[in-house]
Amino acid sequence: MSQSAPVSHDAAVATSSMRLDLWLWAARFYKTRSLARHAIETGKVEIGGQRPKASRAVRAGDLLSVSRAEETFEVTVVGLSDSRGSASVAQQLYVESEDSRLRREHERANRAAQRTGYCAPETRPDKRARRLIRALGDIDAL
């Protein structure tokens, strides 16, 4: 009976932490482990405000800041998984803070608002419009 206790303890220790790049891949923040490792090495991932290495151990309760494209996620690690599952399974591995979620939604709305001012023309410019466009390039042509 005493032999089974250390084995189960070792199994619990083995699953209580895992590599950061593997966790980011399993939690679907990055498509491949090499992309996750590159993001860690370039400073796009922080644990507790510090830049980690790709091999750093992640445990439940760790606070991560993950920058991806124009978005920054601030998450708390809730679960560990060394296999990549569906998106619904991956979302159970972390909890995003409410401030982070609201900030991302606000920034996304700002980016969408900046794009709304542009309206592509429906047709090619006619002869008069081409002359005006050319005149904009040469102020003396007016």
Automatic annotation (TrEMBL):
Keywords noted in UniProt: RNA-binding
Keyword RNA-binding found: yes
SMART domains: S4
GO molecular function: RNA binding
Record flagged with keyword Glycoprotein: no
Record-annotated membrane-spanning stretches: none
Residue ranges constituting the RNA-binding S4 domain according to the UniProt record: 18-80
CDD domains: S4
One Pfam family hit: S4
Protein name: RNA-binding S4 domain-containing protein
Record organism: Montanilutibacter psychrotolerans
